[in-house]
Design goal:
This protein has 283 residues and is of the alpha/beta class. It folds into 2 domains: 178 residues, 3-Layer(aba) Sandwich (Rossmann fold); 86 residues, N-(1-d-carboxylethyl)-l-norvaline Dehydrogenase, domain 2. An 8-stranded mixed β-sheet has the order 3-2-1-4-5-6-7-8, with helices on both faces. The site of acetoacetyl-coenzyme A has 15 residues, from helix 9. Acetoacetyl-coenzyme A binds next to helix 9.
Length: 283
């Protein structure tokens, strides 16, 4: 199936990045937020990112306006009625995601594919809130979306082959490599990444090393672009905690249990870069 128009629900950090990449790859893109203020902020992030690309000589001024012309911001899901593919990137809240999908199910034509950018919730549970569960899958992007080359495609036990193949072609058309994961918490990347991040926190907690030495160890010793504590701050400590809890709930393996230091920092509101304080200070 040919995708021409893409809808992105949610214009936060992930949604704005996904909408930008879709518009830059030639798709007519509709992106929504729950109110005008959040929409303006999200579109502002896209504008800033495109302007930075122009400044760095990676994009021409003309290409920038072409991309912006392909983007339409809205506060109404009614504007998704011409979308061939919808990517949901709202809060990690199952009730909210199910509400979005069941609303879209009544608005979008039968051929529209629904996908979720969730990093750990059950895609099947979202799929069964629609009358087209075979056309629902996960498309999990990575932050920062314009830079990261991966999309995890999550196939549920109901997703059909046509939907999977269309999703593969679509993610490749964005210049991304795709990998196929089963619908279980953490999929592939977070299944491996999360225990590593939690172990780094346990090492810090047990005073086994300083935060700088833990991060330098992995940056300089393993060529990672960021150490695990800096990366946790970058992802958001609330998000790491949420993913860890979802995985622990499913697998009951202590390696996924959130360490005390993480739970306390989340309770204190030290959520990482977005709040100016996490394992490091960003103010
Ligand atoms: N938008 C567009 N481009 C961006 C960008 C953004 N938000 N942030 C950085 N870039 C570009 C820069 O323009 C620069 O491009 P050029 O080299 O062509 O000039 C390049 O990326 C490098 O950026 P910087 O020089 O500013 O900074 P850096 O070298 O320190 O890289 C980084 C920054 C790309 C974030 C790098 O540190 C990195 O890759 N970190 C790891 C990120 C990661 O692991 N993300 C996955 C998190 S897990 C997740 O998202 C999923 C989940 O479910 C939790």
């Amino acid at each position: 199936m040919a995708i021409k128009t893409v809808g992105v629900v949610g214009c936060g950090l992930m949604g704005s990045g996904i909408a930008q990449v879709c518009a830059q790859s030639g798709y007519q893109t509709v992106v929504s937020e729950i109110n005008k203020e959040l929409l303006d902020r999200g579109i502002g992030m896209i504008n800033a990112s495109l302007s930075k690309a122009v400044e760095r000589g990676k994009l021409t001024e003309e290409a920038r306006s072409t991309v912006l012309n392909r983007l339409k911001g809205t506060v109404s899901l009614e504007d998704f009625r011409e979308c061939d593919l919808v990517i949901e990137a709202v809060l990690e809240d199952m009730n909210e995601k199910r509400r979005v999908f069941s609303t879209l199910d009544k608005i979008c034509p039968p051929h529209t594919i629904f996908s979720s950018n969730t990093s750990c919730l059950s895609v099947l549970e979202m799929a069964v809130s629609t009358k087209r569960p075979q056309k629902v899958l996960g498309l999990h992007f990575f932050n920062p979306v314009p830079v990261m080359k991966l999309v995890e495609i999550v196939r549920t036990i109901i997703t059909d082959d046509d939907t999977l193949n269309t999703a593969k072609q679509f993610s490749e058309s964005l210049g991304k490599k795709n990998i196929i994961a089963k619908d279980q918490p953490g999929f592939i990347v977070n299944r491996l990444l999360t225990p590593y991040l939690l172990d780094a926190m346990r090492l810090l907690e047990s005073a086994g090393a300083t935060r700088e030495d833990i991060d330098d160890g992995m940056v300089l010793g393993c060529n990672h672009p960021m150490g695990p504590l800096a990366l946790s701050d970058f992802i958001g400590l609330d998000t790491v905690n949420f993913i860890a809890n979802a995985m622990y709930e499913e697998f009951k393996d202590p390696k996924y249990a959130a360490p005390t230091i993480l739970r306390k920092m989340v309770a204190a509101g030290y959520l990482g870069r977005k709040k100016g304080k996490g394992f490091y200070d960003y103010k």
